[in-house]
Amino acid sequence: xxxxxxxxxxxxxxxxxxxxxxxxxxxxxxxxxxxxxxxxxxxxxxxxxxxxxxxxxxxxxxxx
Length: 64
Description:
- This protein is mainly alpha-helical and 64 residues long.
- Helix content is 66%, strand content 0%.
- The longest helix is centred in the middle third of the chain and has 22 residues, at 20-41.
- The relative contact order is 0.05.
């Protein structure tokens, strides 16, 4: 009640160099890279399942 409450420290930050076009291009590259990895990841389980069926068929025919 009688003591002062501490205040948060205030400061101003001015970036030394900022190029908006470079920032947009970097954001676009990250978005495209993310979309490519998402698209690639969808087919991997399918390929693995097909490979497992082919391997199981080959083993079945050899051991039969």
